[in-house]
Every structure is written in C-alpha cells, then in structure tokens.
Amino acid sequence: MFPLSSAAVLWIKALHIVAAIAWMAAMLYLPRLFVYHADAKLGSELSETLKTMERRLLRAIMTPAMIATLALGLVLLFHRGPGAWAEPWWWGKLAGLFGLVAVHGFLARWRREFAEDRNRHPAKFYRIINEIPTVLMIAVVILVVVKPG
User: Fold this and answer.
1) Per residue in 40-86, pLDDT tens?
2) Which of 62, 74, 91, 119 could crosslink 26 through cysteines, CB 3.0-4.6 Å?
3) 6-146: which CATH topology?
4) Rounded to whole angstroms, how far apart are CA atoms 21 and 26?
5) What are the extents of the domains in the chain?
6) Which residues of 50-74 are buried (b: 16+ CB within 10 A; e: fewer)?
C-alpha cells in the first residue's frame, strides 16, 4: 500500500474511467469496422481505407487507452493495499479484465490479418464478436459499483 491524498485518488479514478471509456469505445468500434471490411473487395479503395482506419484506431487509441486503464487501475489497487484481494467482487472484476485484454489481443490479431488480406471470417462473425466487450464491460461495471459478495 502506498498513500495518496484523497484529491490524488479522485484524479486517478477520473483518469482511469476516461481511459476505460476510450478503450471500450475503440473495442466496440473496431469489430464494426471489421464487419464492413469483411464485405469489402480485396484491394478496393474501401478495403485500403478500412486498413488505415483499423490500424490508427488500434495503435493511437485502443492500445494506449488499455495501457492507461491498466496502469491507473494498478495505482488504485496498490493504494488500497492487500485488503482489496480479500473482496470477492475483485476476483470477478479481474476475470472480466482478463477477458477484455484477451478480446483486445484477438482484435489486434484480426486487424493484422485484414492488413495482410488474410481475413478468414465472415461479417456475421464480427457482429457476434462485437457483443463480447459489451457483456464484459457490463459485468465489470456492476461488480465495481455494486460490489456483491
């Protein structure tokens, strides 16, 4: 545990929430781009434009937002100390967080496959994938706010 002033904790929480919102926005938008990309003709202007959009979204917004979310969350965790690990809701949040990081990794891999014109999935696949971050986000927010258990 390391001490932070109450004002510092509030600023860190606010920045953590902003970073998480940016991360989630990108995680919801990238699969939507994949839906359009899956239906685009290889080598078409649309396909090439989507490649640029996907790369920029992942590298300029999604990954930095994930890193900020995780870093700020760790600061808050260390501020709370070891007692945080004893709270049952924390383990559910951690599972949801691991799920979000895994989805992030899959989205990055699929973006790379699109960039190399090697997409293997139909648009419907990405429509379904688009729901996973939403479900995980809802679970994490409920666990953090309600703190069941």
Assistant:
1) 999 999 999 999 999 999 999 999 999 999 999 999 998 988 887 88
2) 62
3) Four Helix Bundle (Hemerythrin (Met), subunit A) (1.20.120)
4) 9
5) 6-146
6) bbeebeebbeebbeebbebbbebbe
Tokens of 115: 């960039």
Q: How many residues does the chain have?
A: 149
Does the global pTM surpass 0.85?
A: yes
C-alpha distances out from residue 101 to 10, 15, 97, 136, Å: 25, 19, 6, 10
Structure tokens at 17: 């929430």
Query: In whole angstroms, what is the distance from residue 50 CA to residue 106 CA?
Result: 18
How far apart are alpha carbons 81 and 69 in whole angstroms?
Answer: 18
